[in-house]
Known about the structure:
This protein is of the alpha+beta class. Strands 13, 14, 15, 20, 23, 24, 31, 34 and 35 form a nine-stranded mixed beta sheet that branches.
Amino acid sequence: MTGARAWFVGVDVGGTFTDVVLADSAGGVSIGKVPTTPDDPRTGVVEAIRLVLDRAGVDPAAISRVVHGTTLATNVVVQRTAAPIALVTTEGFGDLLRLGREARVEDDRYDLLFTPAAPLVDARLTFEVAERVSARGEVLVPLTDEVIADVAGRVAAAHPAGVAVCFLHSYASPAHEQLVVEACRAALPSAYVTCSSEVWPEMREFERAMTTAVCALVGPVMAGYVAGLESRLHDIGIGCAVEIMESSGGVMSAQAAARRPVATVESGGAAGVTAAGIVGRSVGVADVISFDMGGTTAKAGIVRDGSPAITHDFQIGGKGSFGGARPGTGVPLKTPVVDLAEVGAGGGSVAWVDAGGALRVGPRSAGAMPGPACYGRGGTEPTVTDANLLLGYLDPAGLAGGVTLAPDLAAAAVERAIAAPLGIDVTGAAQAVHEIVNASMAGAIRVVTVQRGIDPRGFTVVAFGGAGPMHVARLAATFGIQSVVVPWGAGVASAIGLVSSDLSVDLVRTRIIDLEGADATALTHLFDELEARGRDELGDANATFAVTRSADMRFQGQAHQLTVPVPDGPLGHEDLSALSKRFHEVYRQTYGIDADAPAQIVSARVRVVRMVDKLSPRPHAVAERDASLALAGEREASFAEVGGFTATPVFDWSRLEPGCRLTGPAIVEGPDATIVVPPGYSAAVDRWRNVLLAGAEAS
């Protein structure tokens, strides 16, 4: 890290808006928002960066980091928009991806004509190889030069865009995979070729093969996207390389993202949870619920003891009420991902009446174009934004991103599609839309708390996204949560999380080791190897690093494992005893059972973080100040507590100084987000310019 002032740009591409943050190492922050350009997101990214640089008067050449959050990997897998890829696997395992695992949930349980999703790889592009390695790495069927040449030739003749090589038990011995990869790269120099031992050398053949296939599918698209973005940024004078947020909350280089694009599947979501954790630490709370409501979706995540909850088994496009962690409901990946639950509930979510006469909201969104009806861009369907405008929560003068709002268009859409079919007035219909979307989003919070065995009442909600601060007070009340923080820059909080993160890499290697009688020196060597590889990947041996070690453990005879922290440095027998004790504690906390059985390590995990220049916000002095000095006016807004519309003071967030206090009902408008403070709530501005909401009991 350097002592000179450095400038960073964070960009988060959402379904409706592209958010950009220009930050510097002295704590300054400038924000911008433009509508997302779905046909080519890079157009919106470059436009947003150019906009914020021009406003701040910063020379593009001064930018030292551009950190990008993207849904590219997830979109490619869900939409199946990439070119066909090939799978090379062990003889007898060609049907691995087609057999897979399937869990029917929700409406699919009752579908007699249920059709599973098509596999990522067509049977005609699946190639079996005569080779075999045991789970302990012993060669059972040698791989000959003739077999290597034959499979490389057959793969090349099929002309796939990508090739995934995944052999049985290659995590124990990767030599066969590497030989075939070299041959395929030579035979197909323009194709993207990867193998499971490079991507994620962990046991479970189906998940490992699927993870490798996703890399081969997304890799060419990711590489082309990043190269094109860097070229466009160079055209406007930004010379630094692009960095990509990874799913576990760190940042990786563009080259690493192209090699392991599977690590970016929850890029934007991870940035939001990272930001929520940073905000939690700044206000002195370690247990946080991250609530992010944007234009298309709402996401909920958990930060416990200052660290985001991480899952190592994630489903892209998973169904059901378990977030991305329910096996068999999507495309499974073996990669660390921030544990998130996501619902199709955002400002642009369309409200509609179903065939049974019930009001529904989402998951379909009006998106960036045409957007909600009130945007005046040709949209005719009512959305959550239209409802919030009619309830008085939004200023008709417009939103961030240069969008003005038309109440008459919103009212016409709500009347036609909701009020008339249900026989109610427009205000009642708008209130119903607001309440229904709140109920939907409460489901996401319930997934990451109650359904994980966590009592949410002891947590603080950190709410962000363009729409989150309008809904968070009602959501918190649903769970009896009394403490809410809306951070300054809430509308672009994920982008702020991007420029607040260090470079990192996660590595794993499966080694099944019975803890009783284990060789502590050999185990230390395994962790040291992973750490050395991580430091080498991150470069700059003179940088400051932070290393976290953990182990996946289980009782002998079990099929699944729990992750347990491992101390740094050389391990001794006393450390192994302490590790066994810690595993028993984690098992008891998770399942409520005390088991008396020998434990074993299944996989070693290492996370290496390289500290880099990043945003470090500066606090402001706090003093008792008069909030009325920030009063910007008032407008009629609807609150059930007062029986409907009431004159509601509107405060300018940028003029609310640290130490200001106010009581609801009130509305606080910032440059990128609007906070609704209901009756019975108080609000205070802290030294970071965050707005702290407290319910009546906590006040």
